[in-house]
């Protein structure tokens, strides 16, 4: 009989778009490829995802005041924390979840700490008392959440941050195995008291653009060299944009563009128009918004350079892996290359941590010859999800076997 893993998350992964969904979908694929049967339950924001992207066991997090308040207060940007409380409550989502649990579970894998209370509650049931718990860390969440709240000037949230820190450390300490996306994060999990912490870095799905798509996008994009920024609307992807690249996009030549793809597009637009250089900034932007995976493959294949303006936070950025894999120039902050430090030896990888450095490097690379793309060397091949996540089912199955009956 196949071992059974239950994946718990705060987003569905039927049709993955943002980084968390993409990682989770590939974790599910890694388990399945290793011979596991995978079940999943997601507690997702109401109206946050289209119906066709939801699984049969996914449950919306209601907007009622009862569940959207922390200690009686409405605090923005902590719905992930609140959704875990809802999922584990008998007056919330737990009865729905209980009806959908598989008869047998070997492992509960919780991606990010938010649904840890639900995992613990399931393990507390007699039928699941021998379940092993796995914690998948995508960030050290507490400092990242503090950065996000600070960037939106959210006050009166110290107790919420304390609750997040306690939850994160609880997940780390109670998990049988933890997985981190960077070596630095892995060491932090051990400092938090992890019993065992392994590395399972972020990766990419290698892409091959369709020739027809390439030709179509060549007609839409600048003929002069241009730079690409791909990101979701996750706040760290735009709140620090101006601090990284500066208020003016005048360093981009008039016949070139900063091409922006993904749901971050409208946020970059608003950031650009808030400055005194708004007219100039808009003239240097080409916003694609959210496009299909096939179209995105073509756009990434045509990019002369990739912009990686990640100012802070933990974990690692999937878009950095895609940029490195592309073979194009990669211009990013030091933070953007967390987890990919060994790729700094590649000549097209460049770091900048002040607007002046950023502008100088981008201006320079846009004048350089188009990078050679043909050689996807062995170092870049290590970026594939298959290689990055193989350690998860291997370590989990080994642990389950070694601890059977204990």
Question: How many individual domains?
Answer: 2
Low-confidence stretches: none
Largest sheet: 7 strands, parallel
In whole angstroms, how far apart are the ends? 20 Å
Q: Structural class of the helices, strands and pairings?
A: alpha/beta
CATH C-level category of the largest domain: Alpha Beta
Radius of gyration: 22 Å
CATH topological fold name of the largest domain = Rossmann fold
Q: List SSEs in N-to-C order.
A: EHEEHHEHEHHEHEHEHEHHEHEHEEHHHH
Question: How many beta-strand runs?
Answer: 13
Q: Strands across the major sheet, in which order?
A: 3-2-1-4-5-6-7
In the CATH hierarchy, the architecture of the largest domain is 3-Layer(aba) Sandwich
Mean pLDDT across all amino acids: 92
In DSSP terms, counting alpha (H) and pi (I) runs of 4 or more, how many helices? 17
| Helix residue percentage | 25-40%
Form type: globular
According to CATH, the homologous superfamily of the largest domain is Glycogen Phosphorylase B
């Amino acid at each position: 009989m196949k071992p059974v893993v239950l994946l718990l998350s705060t987003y569905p992964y039927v049709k993955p778009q943002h980084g968390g969904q993409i990682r989770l979908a590939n974790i599910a694929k890694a388990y399945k490829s290793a011979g596991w049967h995978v079940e999943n339950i997601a507690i997702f924001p109401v109206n946050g995802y289209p119906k066709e992207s939801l699984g049969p066991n996914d449950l919306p997090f209601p907007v009622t005041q009862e569940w959207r308040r922390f200690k009686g207060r409405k605090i923005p940007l902590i719905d992930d924390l609140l959704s875990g409380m809802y999922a584990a409550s008998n007056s919330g989502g737990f009865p729905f979840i209980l009806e959908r649990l598989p008869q047998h579970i070997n492992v509960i894998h919780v991606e990010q700490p938010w649904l840890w209370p639900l995992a613990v509650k399931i393990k507390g049931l007699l039928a699941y008392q021998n379940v092993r718990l796995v914690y998948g860390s995508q960030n050290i969440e507490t400092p990242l959440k503090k950065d996000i709240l600070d960037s939106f000037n959210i006050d009166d949230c110290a107790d919420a941050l304390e609750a997040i820190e306690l939850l994160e450390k609880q997940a780390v300490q109670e998990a049988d195995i933890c997985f981190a996306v960077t070596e630095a994060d892995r060491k932090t999990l051990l400092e938090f008291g992890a019993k065992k912490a392994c590395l399972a870095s972020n990766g990419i799905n290698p892409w091959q653009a369709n020739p027809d798509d390439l030709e179509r996008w060549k007609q839409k994009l600048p003929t002069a060299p241009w730079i690409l920024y791909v990101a979701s609307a996750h706040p760290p992807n735009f709140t620090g944009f101006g601090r990284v690249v500066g208020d003016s996009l005048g360093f981009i030549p008039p016949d070139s563009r900063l091409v922006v793809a993904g749901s971050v597009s409208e946020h970059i637009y608003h950031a650009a128009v808030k400055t005194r250089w708004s007219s100039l900034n808009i003239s240097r932007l080409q916003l694609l918004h959210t496009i299909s995976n096939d179209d995105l493959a073509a756009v990434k294949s045509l990019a002369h350079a990739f912009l990686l303006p990640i100012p802070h936070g933990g974990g690692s950025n999937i878009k950095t892996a895609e940029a490195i894999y592309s073979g194009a120039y990669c211009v990013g902050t030091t933070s953007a290359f967390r987890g990919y430090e060994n790729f700094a030896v590649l000549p097209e990888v460049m770091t900048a941590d002040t607007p002046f450095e950023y502008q100088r490097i981008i201006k320079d690379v846009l004048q350089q010859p188009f990078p050679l793309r043909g050689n996807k060397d062995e170092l870049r091949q290590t970026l594939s999800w298959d290689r990055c996540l193989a350690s998860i089912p291997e370590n989990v199955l080994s642990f389950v076997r070694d601890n059977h009956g204990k």
